[in-house]
Amino acid sequence: MTSPAAPSSFPSGLPSSPGAHVRAVHDDFHGDLLEVSMGPHHPSTHGVFRMIVTLDGERIVRLKPVFGYLHRNHEKLGEQTTYLASMPYTDRLDYLNSMTNNWAYAIAVEKLAGQAVPERAEYVRVILAELTRLLNHTCLAGFLLQDTGCSGTPLMYAFREREKILDLFESLSGSRMMCNFQRFGGCRLDPTPEWLAAVRQLVDGYGRFLDEFEALISGNEIVMARTQGTGVLTPALAISAGVTGPMLRATGVDYDLRKVDGYGVYPRFEFRVPLGAHGDTYDRYMIRILEMRESIQILRQALRDLPAGPILDPKAKNRGFRPKPGEAYGRIEGPKGEIGFYLISDGSPNPFRYRVRPPSFVNLTILEDMCLGQTVADAVIILGSIDIVLGEVDR
Amino acid sequence: MSMSESASTPATSGPASQEGFSPTQQERDELRRHGILLTSLEELYNWGRSNSVWPLNFGLACCAIEMIAASMARFDIARFGSEVFRPSPRQADLLIVSGTVTKKMAPQVIRLWNQMPEPKYCIAMGACAISGGPFKQGYNVLKGIDRYLPVDIYIPGCPPRPEALLHGLMQLQAQIRGQKLTGPDRPRHLRADTGCAYPVPEFGAHDLEPPANPEVWQAPSLPRSG
């Protein structure tokens, strides 16, 4: 047992007075308004995000987000470590999707070094990225419905499926969440035939889970009443704010980096890009469900066509890696949007500048525009539908 | 994990001091077989408390996802009586510091701890909460929440598996079962000379002020010969 502490010689003692997080403000236009601080400890803010909402009755007239409660000096640490040593740090950016973070970083470094990737590694990367997409979107659907008030059940179902995918990640890479799997010029380990059979089994069963989930949720009257028409995002605003990923496609803009850039071996697969029509919270939920169904198609094709060969380019240099001076930007379509890494090399083992383009941070910037005029309860589900992870927002 | 070995078998800690009434474990088991349950108020009280530890619904970073996973169907923290994650600190017994505590967040964490009523317990989950973990070199990361809070259980890992969190919870339960109701070594919440509020640090010019709570944490000193 540790020794107890009595408040003694410290400058600030007890917590501030009760009710300090709520304050009345006066506005000439609205009259009396109420300012409420939601977060950083709030069960609906998906981590330590804080928003200061100004309310006219129950309607939001102003929303000020406060970031930085999880600022972990990611970019500065990236400049102080070698290129390879930054790979585990990218796991912890968006801690639900370590595989896609790894891939985006590997692409940036491979561009910097002009490194080729064996074909088998490209296929394995696609398999892992699409499994990650399934994982992320399943969890998002669970969390979003938790926010709407379906307490427990959808999240339980989502995490049941997440555990199945994490079992695959763990048996392949040794870690459930922080996989640290990609290397410059390939992947760390070669998947065994048993592992691929297990993936095939999961992919075959995933459609049934989605059918079950959708039968319970998608046509539910309460879910539709809560989410349809809330948090409408217009395509023009989404484009001008730099929103990417399912958020952008829910507004009806056809922009998917898997099609636009065609990185890796994605051009070889047949899949559709689902688009929304209204840009509201329900569309953002539905886009994710439809994307999961397309991911299943991609996974089936990738598992079918997986070629034999090396998993890591034998000439690839990971340890003691010193690229020539230059700069590179590598990006992929992560589950949350465009995740990119910008690197400047000065010829030393460490990058001179290491910059992350986090999708959920950019997507979060339009939170106020979507929340204005909505109620506080709607702000919670609008935030949930943006799909933020604070490790990536604050870095 | 910090615990004493004797705490794992609380049934042996009977009132041994009273003359003529000191049943051994064998005798108690024998009586139990005949339908007679011998217990003390202390054991009963600690048994009830240890099986209804309500954690605070408070996630900080990556470890929070594993904390949620521990409360879901596969790992099912409800088996240990801790499935009731309360969003309000007023209703919580256990603070699981699940993730990196940054210097901006540390005052809020300590404020939450102060708002929790005694008896309360703290688990430092993951490398970041213990020491800063992989982000220790960063300018904005607190190098361990035990600088400000009395941590009962440390769970290593980055992030720890849900099983590790369950193990930590079981260790905490054993620790609770070993607590004395009376005597000089009774826990914090039964003593009159201790408050349940801990000083909240402020964000100073360069660092948190003060950098640590000296009544909870002292910088480790290396023993030097000569």
Task: Explain what this protein looks like in three dimensions.
- The complex is a heterodimer of chains A (395) and B (226).
- Chain A is α+β, with helices and mostly antiparallel strands and 395 residues long.
- Chain A has 2 domains: 22-66, no CATH class; 74-394, Orthogonal Bundle (Cytochrome-c3 Hydrogenase, chain B), CATH 1.10.645.
- Chain A has 15 helices and 9 strands.
- In chain A, the strands form 3 sheets. Chain A has a 4-stranded antiparallel β-sheet with strand order 1-2-3-4. In chain A, strands 7-8-9 form a 3-stranded antiparallel β-sheet.
- The longest helix of chain A has 30 residues, at 119-148.
- Mean pLDDT of chain B is 84; it is low at 1-16.
- By secondary structure, chain B is α/β, with parallel strands linked by helices.
- The longest helix of chain B is centred in the C-terminal third of the chain and has 16 residues, at 162-177.
- Chain B has a 3-stranded parallel β-sheet with strand order 1-2-3.
- In chain B, helix 2 runs antiparallel to helix 6 (162-177) and helix 3 packs across helix 6.
- Chain B is built from 6 helices and 5 strands.
- Chain B has a domain at 52-189: Rossmann fold.
- In chain B, a hairpin with a 4-residue loop joins strand 4 (202-203) and strand 5 (208-209).
- In chain B, 27% of the residues lie in helices and 8% in strands.
- Chains A and B meet through helix 1 and helix 5 of A and helix 3 and helix 4 of B.
List the helices and strands and how they pair.
The complex is a heterodimer of chains A (395) and B (226).
Chain A: E1 22-27, E2 31-38, E3 50-56, E4 59-66, H1 74-80, H2 87-91, H3 98-113, H4 119-148, H5 153-173, E5 182-183, E6 186-187, H6 193-217, H7 221-227, H8 235-240, H9 246-250, H10 257-260, H11 281-305, E7 326-334, E8 337-345, E9 351-357, H12 359-364, H13 367-371, H14 376-386, H15 390-394
Antiparallel strand pairs in A: 1-2, 2-3, 3-4, 5-6, 7-8, 8-9
Helix pairs in contact in A: 3-4, 4-5, 4-11, 4-14, 5-6, 6-11
Chain B: H1 25-33, H2 41-50, H3 62-70, E1 94-98, H4 106-115, E2 121-125, H5 126-131, E3 153-155, H6 162-177, E4 202-203, E5 208-209
Parallel strand pairs in B: 1-2, 2-3
Antiparallel strand pairs in B: 4-5
Helix pairs in contact in B: 2-6, 3-6
